[in-house]
Amino acid sequence: MPAIETEICHFFNCVLYLFFSSCPQSTCVHLLMDVLSFLLHSDPQRLVGVVGLEIHAQINSKTKLFSGSPVGFSAPPNSLVSFFDASLPGTLPVLNKRCVEAAVMTGLALKCTVNKKSFFDRKHYFYADLPAGFQITQQRQPIAVDGALLYSLLGGKKRNQVIQKTVRIKQIQLEQDSGKSLHDDLRSQTFIDLNRAGVGLMELVMEPDMSCGEEAAAAVRELQLILQALGTCQGNMAEGQMRVDANVSVHEPGEPLGVRAEVKNINSIRYLAKAIDFEIQRQIDILQRGGVVLKETRAYDSKSGETISMRDKEGLQDYRFMPEPNLPPLIVYTDNASLPPGIDVRQAVVVEAIRKRLPELPGVKRDRLVRSYGILPEHSFTLVNEEGLVEYFEEVLKATAKEPRKVIGWVTNDLLGHLKEQNIPVSQRSVSRTGNAIIPSCLSPRLLLVYVPAVTHTSHVGLTQVFQEMWRSPGKAAQQLIQEKDLGLVADTNQLHSICQKVVDSHPHEVDAIRNGNKKVLNKLMGLVQKETKGRADPVLVRAILQDKTS
Amino acid sequence: MLSLTIREVSLALREGRISPTELCRKCLDQIRTTQHLNAYISVTEETALRQAAEAETRMRQGVPRGPLDGIPFAVKDNFCTEGIQTTCASRMLKDYTPPYSATVVQKLFDQGAVLMGKTNMDEFAMGSGSTDGAYGPVRNPWSYATFYREANGAEPDSDWVVTGGSSGGSAAAVASLTSFLALGSDTGGSTRNPGALCGVVALKPTYGLLSRHGLIPLMNSMDVPGILTRTVHDAAIVLGALQGLDRKDSTTIPPLSTQMELPEKSDVRNICVGIPKEYHAPGLQEDTLAEWRRVADMFDREGARVVQVSLPHTQYSIVCYHILCCVEVASNMARFDGLEYGHRSPVATSTEAMYASTRHEGFNDVVRGRILSGNYFLLKQNFEHYFTKAQKVRRMIADDFKRVFDSGVDVLLTPSTLADAARYCDFSQEDNRTRSAQEDVFTQPANMAGLPAVSVPTALSKRGLPIGLQLIGPAQQDKMLLTVAQWVEQSVGFLAHNHYEDAVMSMNKWRSVDAPLGFHV
User: Fold this and answer.
1) B107 is catalytic
2) Which of B 199-228 lie inside 8 A of A, CB atoms?
3) Which CATH architecture has domain B6-316+391-504?
4) pLDDT tens-digit series, residues B12-38
5) A202 near A107, Cβ under 8 Å?
6) Does the ipTM exceed 0.90?
7) What is the four-CA torsion angle of A298, A300, A304, A309, rounded to 10 degrees?
8) How large is the C-alpha radius of gyration of chain A?
9) Domains plus CATH for chain A?
10) Which residues numbered 72-101 in A keep a CB inside 8 Å of some CB on B?
């Protein structure tokens, strides 16, 4: 790729430049000595990655952080813009209480200290989609500090070993989102959409406690689940509701941290892991060649899987922070008793009241699932990872009174596999036809009651078809559809007998094998029968018939 | 009729002695007559006549809205007015029409007051002469008064004096009887200074008592909408109508009292008047000093306790203000990039080039200078050294006042300005920054501390120009402050001479010889 080649050339130029032209002589000598000592004493194999994250999470609120305009993702350009959002002169910010509550709730869920008093600051830079020329953020004293995120990785040979990790949360600050610039390179024009300008963000700063892409990805996934459980952020990375920048450096364990590069433009968790791992390897390669890592901002290119220098002036930018004079200090109260007289409770943000509203967090939920249902930890991850799946699993248990360990296999493998194949999310809030159903109607546990003999075995095809039909004709009962479309199990004993007979007759070798004690071969015959019946044969029945015919 | 107070003309309107439309037309005529003062950037004749007609209907139906119904008023051109050009006297906003009205303007509309026009000022309120705006300088109506001309042998065309600033247009509008009240803005004295130099009452209320929503900011942490009227009583009426919480301005405070109207007679026998010794500043004119003494003695004779007090950190106020003001200016002006509104340079080689030339073309030297300084003070390596230090000094200045008021002082009596109005030709010898530093020296500390302060005209100087004295009160004691100010007003007898009529009458004689002022944009 030409861009990369240029990039590498540029990099080498920089290195040469540093060594031989720009440095004052003493610095040059120092630098050379450092490099020499590095080459002599270090074992490059021991270089490890260090990863810190900055996460911008869009607050799930009806209106923006400082104005009354609605928040929406796909509205027509510039249709959700108040006078304040467009920075019309004379307009002033008015803080949205819901956004403060979201930040406090997130802070509590991440074990942060919620500051009773925090401040807003202006961060200045000129950019076309930042209409005021500054962003209102919290630089001096953010709303929440010193938290921790517990997350887990699945490790071990079979990736079924749960490894617990912790990353420290430095702070959570409230700030405004910017608008969007759309560049028309042909006409060299830029269009500005201010719909997003002023939407509330929580910037979460994670300390460099991670060491690779997988860890970072697991931490971000856990954070995403927490935010979604709290309802403080929808967490959709593709829609930009959660944006992750990674600070990546490498060093030898025990040595001071290396120079870090900031990697931006990462819009999925998968890419996050790839971008970080690429960047760690890139830096290790540079150091092993005796080069120097630059402090710079790099963008992840998902096509090439590489990070590319953005060559911006980020490093030189002085944001000229100053206190925001139009907003008084943000005060939150511990409990109702600590409210000063004359303060309207409805206007106040009360920490303990928010703590009471904290839902069951994913980690707690997983522990509970493992404890009360005896399922495997990795299954608890699968359940919690899909919004609505835990509730669904528990409903199925209630409705069918089946053994949890039997149901879990079907739910996490068969059902989930189907849904993924069909690209149907378990939770369908946005397209739910009943308005508020968490689970699509086609997956109602009642349907399962009818279908249980099939679903607990292997009738995939029929199940998929029922899903699809249910999707197409909402409101129709599952049984009705099964009958109408002839999707039910083939349970006609005569019909099954003749099919089984045909299979047995045409596979004498297999039959012999079974008769000689290799019972596993029976499964092959069963598969052939299912193929004949398009997967709709009642497996229990088929097995019985085949056993009979091969005994 | 035009020289009546709000209270008097309001009564005349209710009693049908004059109709709102007649009154409005008289003011419009007067604006035309006094056009050479350059007090207005835009005259909103159509709006005024419509609003007057609406007021007239209410009067006829016997349902007037309140003491301001049908009263002509003027607004400094840095308050947003829906559908009416709002320029801040800058090329940057010369064609800007806001889609909303400032809260204080809206409140006046809601009271039935009649908008005559938008008044001239220093560009973005940065100045103390009303001489540094894109629409040219404002002339002080007193330049044309008989007494001034005779005392100085002045030629009005060359020897006219400035109004002070930056709300000079608003002060001139009230003094030249084209409006009964005007809104100014006061960040370092921008309402009180021209109020004093134009001989009108100028109130800077407690910070936060009046909403800043819709006031295009100079400095958010010190800006206060100011009220200019011809009597203290009128100022209290307007304050009563404008005060109070505004959901759109998070720094506003609840109204002080529902009843802001002042008693007929003020009693000052039991109050303590502080005379800050540091206000005997270099450059204090003899006439002004004499007035200060005279009024202090009057308090004494009336039975008030007059004590000397010290505000030791006041001397640092100007330099501190300079830093804080530039910092907020640099920040507030960042939005003027030519993208969403305002002037946009045709230079289009790159976005950055467009920003740069837009801002170069749109702002005058004063604004650009403050932006540059402010950004310098905000740089990472300078922030502690300048901004943080200035904030600390600001706190010390505020603490000075607190200490004095806690010791039992009710109000402070000081001059409003060092001297009476300067001739334009003298004033323009010095640059804007030097002038602002000189002119704001007595008014600025009250902004640092967010305190209410009012300038009251007390006499004419030997040159025949008004002298104003300032009263400063504790935070949220605006009503008490005005009560004392009313006593000063009643005791000094300034109003009794009906100076305004004299000034205006003689001005009318001169208008024919004045070359019409072209707009400078």
Assistant:
1) no
2) 212-217, 219-221
3) Alpha-Beta Complex (3.90)
4) 999 999 999 999 999 999 999 999 999
5) no
6) yes
7) -10
8) 29
9) 48-323 (no CATH), 362-431+439-485 (no CATH), 493-550 (1.10.10.410)
10) 83, 86-95
